[in-house]
Amino acid sequence: MTDFILGVYFARSQDKSFHIEGAVNHIFTQSLPFEGLQPRVFRIKLGGRWFSFPEPEALAGKLNRGFLEASSCHPIKTINEKLIAELGKAFPLKRLTCSFPLLPQGGSSVLTSWNCDLSAAFWVNLLEDNSNSEPLIGGTTQDMEDLLESFSELSLPKSPGRNGKEEAREGIYGQAKVCLRPSLLVHVQAIIQAPDFLPGTLHILSGPVFRKCLILPFTMPAFHETLFILGFNQNLKDGCLQSLLDHLKGILDSFLTQTFPEGSKLSSSVEFVFQPNGKDYMINVKSHNFGPDFAKDLIIGSVTTPATSIIHKDQGFVFVSMNLDLLAMLVWGISDWRMLWTFDKRFLNNFIPGKIEPFKSYSLCPPCFVHDISFWLDEKKGFDELEFHTVARAVSQDTVISIQFLSRFQHPKTEQVSLCYRLTYQTCDKALTQQQVTSMQSQFRKEIQQRLHVTPR
């Protein structure tokens, strides 16, 4: 299957350049066929017992990718290592091991304490699985025994007693509701309360996080986060905070200008925007790599300065959270966040480990398909727009790039309300067909009727 472009007067192929005045040039580039990903089943070991859970449909292909592992040459790993190395020139560092991203249901209070919306979390059910000790077919096994310290025995489903045979079916005995962490900030309390926490040292935690979000160009349901934690004497708060912000701004400015054309008058504009609460900042960057239509402020991180800890009354803290995926997009000029998660080997072939050079897209002109959908609302159930976007993401496997609200209609007699939306389908690296999109749209109509209790028209 191929992508196809017509170019007039000037064109550049992927193998060689040529310039023909007045000619129409045909450019072909090989494209992979679109093949749907099936959500995987993961098996983990907790307290000597095996549990399994399915990968959420909206996150198919995004769990356990290993982009930050030592053997990885992914740009997310490159930008993370460079960021840490530069900060290491100004601060002593301590890197922490990041656990698998599961939080018990009882730990939901930590989400609200960091203003994490519980409705935006991806919840999964851990099923105790004693069927065998081998990986499930098509699944992934990971021994989590020493990593999930936040789990207690109360968090796990109880094993059935000797008379519990009726409850045990096919080796699955009980379940516990857990969520995929929406931010690394949920680990802060455990880190600063650890006996080996060192004030004056920059503690670093890096790993994937997951949260439901609307379908927009620069919002993503899965991304990699790096968290920097610095403890200091309260008397030195202003100096330590300003030093960290100054170094961070200098590093980010340097990264973001490396791929600008030589002699370019463009300049990076990293800003720490003071928040209404009077103590925190958002890290904003104005993008220049994606054209004038995208020259807007993008939030790539946050700076949090919490109140004095009960345990460390004489200490202050600052927590800096960075979205590595968005930072990598800005640095390399990758306009579509989905490209970071592609399984196409040509993506990684664009990168030289440890170097920053402009990204060259290998997908020249992927086809675009538009479908409208309208439906009646159930007055008693209401309408959850976030879930509407999440269902679209799951059914289309992230091929829906835009959801546009078109109209609202209220029947003059029944007063029933109808909404109309426009969905735009397009992949970033595969050849999507009209037939596949039609099938997805048909399935989407069925799913929203079942999950959102609406009636498609």
Automatic annotation (TrEMBL):
It comes from the Eukaryota. It comes from Rhinolophus ferrumequinum (Greater horseshoe bat). This is Ferredoxin-fold anticodon binding domain containing 1. Residues 364-457 form the FDX-ACB domain. InterPro entries: aa-tRNA-synth_II/BPL/LPL, Fdx_antiC-bd, Fdx_antiC-bd_sf.
